[in-house]
Design brief:
heterodimer, A: mainly alpha, B: 106 residues, mainly alpha, 55% helix
Chain lengths: 226, 106
Amino acid sequence: MHIPDGVIGPGVSAAAGVVAAGGFGVAVSRARRYLTDRLVPMAALVTAFVFAGQMINFPVLPGMSGHLLGGVLAAVLVGPWAGYLVVAIVLIIQAFLFADGGLTALGLNIVNMALIGAVGGYLVYRLIFRLAGSRPDRVAPAAGIAAFLSVPMAGLGFVGEFALGGTAESLSLGAILVAMVGTHLLIGIGEGVITFFVVGAVMKARPDLVYGSPTFSGRRTEELLS
Amino acid sequence: MNRKAIGLFIAGLAVTVFIAVVVSQFASDEPDGLEYVAEQQGFGDEADVHDLAETPLAEYGDNLESDSRVSTGIAGLVGVAAALGLGFGLFWLIRSPGTDSADSTR
C-alpha cells in the first residue's frame, strides 16, 4: 500500500503533502484535548506495534501479499486523531529509515493510510458500533469489521490520486479500480482479524484505556468523532 | 503508571519486539496489493528507485548483512525503537496538561 515516487505526478503529490501536513496540525490540536499523561505510553506502544505489524506481509493470493495498515486498530485504541499521528509516524520512519514508500509520496501515503485509514476508518467503526448496540462486547467485532473495510477504502484513495495525477498513460481507470478494491478486500480480511484480536485483548486487560469503548475512563474530544 | 499499567506496557512491548524480530523472519516476499496491481495493470515501471535505496536499513536491512535473518531482526529492532521513541516524544510533547491525575491511581 506504500506508493513509491514517480507513480503520481508532482502536483497531486504536493497537494497531498499539504493535506497531510494540515491533517497533522489538526490531529495534534485534537489529540492534545484528551491525550493525558497516562495515555502517552499506550500511544507510543501502539505506534511501535503498528510498525511491527506492518513488517509482516502475509500471503493473500499466489504472487501477492498484504500487510496490516493499523489505522482502525490505532484509532479505536487511542482515538482517531492520535491514531492519525500513530500511522503518520510509522510512515515517516518507513520512508526515511527503510526506503519504504517514496519521499515525495509521503503525503499521498499519509492521506491514504492515516486520514482515510485511521480517521475515516474510525467513522466507519462508530457507525458499525452504534448499529451493533454500543455494548462493550461489541467493540472488538465492530473494530474488526471497520478495519476490514478501511483497507479497500485506502485503496480507493490511491485510485482517486491515480485518476488525478497518475503518470502512466492510456491505462483503464476502471480496471485499476476493480483490481485495487478486489485485492484489498482480500487483504482487508487479515486486517480485520488482527484488529479484532488485538482490540479484544486490550479490552480484556484494560477496557478503561480503549478510547473507542464506552468503558473508556478518560475524556473524549468533541461529538463529531466521539 | 501503576503496576498493572506497567505490566500491560511491558507485555505489549514484548509482543511487539517478538513480531518485529522473530515473526518478521517469516513474512512473505511477494509484492503487496498495490505493487501487484501496479504490475498487473502496467504502471509498475513508473516507480522510481527510492532516494534512500542505498542506505543501510533500506528495505528492512537488505544492505546491512549477508545473513538476511540478522539484518531483518536488526531492522525490526531499530524500527520498533524509533517508533517507540518518536511516538513517546510527540505524544509527551502534546499531552494535555495535568488532567486526570485522579484517574491515574486506578
